[in-house]
Request: fold
Amino acid sequence: MDIDRIRYFQIFSQTGSLVKASEVLHISQPALSKALRLLEAEVGCKLLEPDGRGLRLTEAGRQFQRESAPLLNQLLAIPAKIKGARQTPPSRLGSFEVFTTYFLGQMLKFTALENLEIHEFGPGRLEQALLDGKIDVGITYLPIPTTGVEFVEATKIKMGVFGLKGKGDLPFVIPLLPPEGTPSKVVGLDGWPDHRFARDVKFRVTAMESALELCRDGAALAYLPDFVVRLHNEKIKPEFRLHEMPAPIPQRERMQSVYLVKRQNAVEVQLHRQIAKALRDL
Reply:
């Protein structure tokens, strides 16, 4: 039985009109009529009957429509299923906005991933997502000790206070949501040691891009990784570029370790090595 003729019949059944069905199928009405007559010959009974100037389904036609619709859908879905089965399974990377927004371009220089999924989780939820199998590997600079999770230091990045030039005496903008399960010495997602150095906080935001916008407007300062500001400054006009400001935190304490987050005892794969190499090149 010709699959195209069955498809033509289903389109006619949905539209109820030879004119509309031929428009949908991009074939002429005579060609559609001929295909439907040949289908009737293959089935061995009348599927259509006259209805004024048009046609309608017979009782046999309605039964054939019901029986053939799911079979046609299954047949038409086979090529996509075969293609999907041949695709490389996705590599699932989890991190928070610092890396998902500003590290991806850097990472793609060192990886040749055919199928990549990016998931955003804050510290604490990141580790749990790894245990739950939602991601394959994570990146963090605020590791939350979690049973079954292993942290491998990949590099160190410099942190600093950044703002618009000439606007040093400003309040801070900080992440709105704290990490879950964070050690007490770190309160915020930006890693500022609040227990040692007080700061004037006026703005709290969910997205880091919102913090950067406040900094660009000269309304706030932010504690950010140096590489984020460098990449940010490459993409904006000179008058909106951010500059490093004096900070009470000693230079040596502003070097922040960055970790790959893996399941404990997981075998190191090429993706892990590629991400680590991209991080070291920041």
Q: What stands out?
A: The mean pLDDT is 87. Residues 3-83 form a domain with the Arc Repressor Mutant, subunit A fold (CATH 1.10.10.10). DSSP finds ten helices and eleven strands in the chain.
